[in-house]
Every structure is written in C-alpha cells, then in structure tokens.
Amino acid sequence: MSKKNLVSLFLVIIFITVKAQNIDMKYAAYAGKSYVFVIFQGDEQKTIYEGKVPANGKFTLNIPKEYAPYNGMARWLITGTMEGGGLDMYIPGKSFSAGFAEDNMPIEKSTFQTDNTAFTEIGNLFREQTNILSRYEAMQQAVKAFTTDDTNYPVFQQEYQKQIKAYDNFQQKLKNRNDYGSQFIRIVDINKGINSQLTGNPIDIAKNTEQFISNELDWQVLYTSGQWTPIINTWLDIHTQLIKNPEQFAAEFQKVSNKAISPAIYTNLVKTIAHYLSQQGQDEYIGAIAPIVTASGKITRYDGELTIYTKGTVGSKAPDLIIPQQETNNKKQTNKTQVLKVTNKAYQQTLLFFYQSVDCKTCDQQLQDLTTNYQILASKGIRVITISADEEKALYNSKSKTFPWKDAYCDYKGEKGDNFKNYSVTGVPTIILIDSSGNIVSRGASISF
Fold first, then answer.
1. What is the rounded radius of gyration, in angstroms, for the C-alpha atoms of the chain?
2. Distance CA 219, CA 221 (A)
3. Which pLDDT value is given to residue 111?
4. 131-137 long-range CB contacts below 8 Å, 24 or more apart?
5. Which residues of the chain fall below pLDDT 70?
6. CA 295 to CA 307: how far, in whole Å?
7. What is the pLDDT of residues 37-91, one digit of tens each?
8. For residues 315 and 438, what is the distance between their CA atoms, to the nearest angstrom?
C-alpha cells in the first residue's frame, strides 16, 4: 500500500473515531424491558434509539452522526411497564459508560458513569444549592417566628445572613465556572422559580432574570437542556407583562440574535417567540423584531408560524383580501374568488377582525364590544371587515347575521384559508388596523375603544 493511501486510511479512521459517540450501558435489573433513548433539540424531544435490554443487561446507545458529538442532556426511559424507571443523564460530547454498581439497587443510588465526571459535578452542585436553600428557609422561618427580644434571635439572624452570603457566593461560583453544568443549573432554577438572588424587590429580581437570559445565557446549552420553551416564555413574560417596551425587547433580542449563531437554534428560537407572542396577542413585539429576524440570514424558509415575520407585520403593506365569490341568482359559484381591496378612500382606516364562532370566548367578547361600538367607529371613518375561521356555513351564518357591518366573509377553510395565511394569523382573535395608505399600523388580540 502506498504512503498516500496509508495517510488517507489513517485520516478516515481518525474521522470515524472522532464522530463515533457511544454510551455503554449495564442494567441487568431491567433485562427484557423495552426502552427509548431521547435527546433534546430546542422544543423537540427526539427519540434516537429504541430497544430492549438484553439478558445480561449490557447494551450500547449510539449517538447518530447528525447529532455527534452531542453535548447536552438526554433521557433513557423504560417503557411499557407500570413501574417505569430510567435515567436523566448529561452527555459530555464524548463516549462514556453508565450502569449499576450493584444489581437490583435503586437506579438513582447505584448509577455510575465512567469518563463523565461532569455528570457527578452537576449533581454535587445541585446538592450544594439545595443545602444552602434549606438552611436559608429554616433560618428565615426562625427569624419570623421569634422576636428580637428572644435570646436565640441574634443566632438565627446571624445564620440567616450567613446563608444569604453563601448563596451569593454559590451563584458567583456558577458564573465563574460558566461550563455546561453551571449554565444548566441556572436554567433549571429559572424554570423552578428559584432566583439568583434570595432577597430584593420582586421586580428587580425578575429584571435580573431577564438580563441573565439576554446577556449571559448560552443558547447552545439551553437548546440541549430540555428546558427550552419554559425559559423563553419566562423571558417573554417579563418583557410583555413587566417591562412593556417593544423597543427595549428588540434591543435585547438583537443581543440574543447575535449569540444564537446556529441556524437550527435561531430558527427554533424565533419560531418559539412567534408562537408565544401571537397566542398572547402581542403582535407589536413581533413587528419590533421582524426586521432583525429577516436581516439575520439564518432562516431558510419562512413557512408555518415563521410567516408572521414576513407577512402582515406592523409597518408593512396590507395584502388585499381573497374572498369567495358571492352567490348570484340563487346559484352558488364554486371555486371562484374575488379580490377585496383593504383600503378605500371613503374610509380613514380599515379594521380587520379574524375570529371563529366556537371555542373562543375572547372572540365572542370582542365581537360584542365591536358591535356595541360600531357606530362610534363608523363615525370616525373606520371600516370594519370580519374574516371567520368557521368551517361550517350554518355556524358562520348564525353568528355573522347579527353583525351591523356589511363586510363579513368566510371561505370555510378554517385557519388554512388564504387570508389567514396572507396575514400570518395563527390564533384568534387577531385584530389588524390599516391606515388609508394601506399600511398596517397595529396588530393585537383586543380593541381599545
């Protein structure tokens, strides 16, 4: 064999070695049991292996090459049994072993993991934090229970302050380490409502959490943590319910956008944000970040919930409506549509109201308010157009016949209809206000009269 071929073969072997990532398992107590092995990718829990534990309890889990080297949390679960069982584990980007030190022992007490000291460190850090919080809570209760005149009060107070200091030191240690384990603990704490500060104004504590997510959070760690959606929703909760400033949200999102380099992570991030904000009727926040999203170059296809960043955003040109052709001479003209201009010089503004007739109490309330105040809107030169997501004609007619405005339409395609797609409406009610130039000036889930 030539020297050139030997070098090529050596490189191939090295490549395979680097890419291969296996977990050797030893769980004889679960012999014969079926299991699944999952890893986390943003809002998805991917099943990458299914099998049955052999008689000797020894088997190997393989990380597929498209995910290797995987650095993140995983879950091995026994399925099809009443007793269940399984193991949450940290996979450190390399191969390792896990199993029972002794057979027939509780899995949480007997699991060993060779070549994976980080998993043990994570467990130790969690225990250290739990111990501090337990002592803090005990002293907090003692300080409340005893008066300052009690001889034991100074001891309790001193210990109380000591635990606050210990917790501050622990949080600083996590920040200084800044490895997967320390990031993971801080992520889990947010999900559990455990703050990085034990004392302080609740508003300041919430803003501190927001700053951690915006400035310090490792998005690759979050992506593989199994905590993706609740952490992002917490971040959005703070912005939409506490800070209430779309411009500031856009500035913080820009920081996150710069750090979420991976197209897969970025796409999942903006999809999760779009889902939350559209469901909450906070479309002005979507409009604030839409230019950042579209300029990122990280999204390959704007489909599904991602269309909300390119269609029907505040500041963009409003698409004309596609509506079914009206019946003439009592004959239904099927599969024919007409274009309805959303702007009309006879009106100052146009209000589009997307709704459905059933299972939407908010729609009912908003439609009632709209009906009550319709004459006020009309006197201000506002045209009202309603678009229904109903799929049954009788249902649509029973609701729409009560409307005092004439522009009410339904194509009986539900939220898959052209107008819902063109305006990126993924939840009802959605209310869109359009100016006389045909530009969308506001979008949300409620009307202010």
1. 29
2. 5
3. 75
4. 132/163, 132/166, 132/167, 132/170, 133/167, 133/194, 135/159, 135/163, 135/166, 136/160, 136/163, 136/164, 136/167, 136/198
5. 1-19, 101-110, 326-335, 449
6. 14
7. 999 999 999 999 999 999 999 999 999 999 999 999 999 999 988 778 888 999 9
8. 10
With CA atoms as reference, report the closest residue to 305 among 415, 391, 410: 415
Three-class secondary structure assignment of 384-440: EEEEECCCCHHHHHHHHCCCCCCEEEECCCHHHCHHHHHCCCCCCCEEEEEECCCEE
Q: Which pLDDT value is given to residue 17?
A: 44
Give 187's contacts (C-beta < 8 A, 6+ positions apart): 217, 221, 222, 225, 227, 231
Give the residue among 378, 369, 364 at the shortest CA–CA distance from 407. 378
Q: 318-346 pLDDT, tens per residue?
A: 999 999 876 544 455 555 788 999 988 88
Label residue 310 left, alpha or beta by phi (over 0 means left) and psi (-120 to 50 means alpha): alpha
Q: Is the pTM of the predicted complex or chain greater than 0.85?
A: no
Q: Which of left, alpha, beta for 370 (phi over 0: left; psi -120 to 50: alpha)?
A: alpha
Tokens 């501050």 belong to which residue? 168
Q: In whole angstroms, what is the distance from residue 278 CA to residue 270 CA? A: 12
Task: Report CA dihedral (177, 183, 186, 189) to the nearest 10 degrees.
Answer: -140
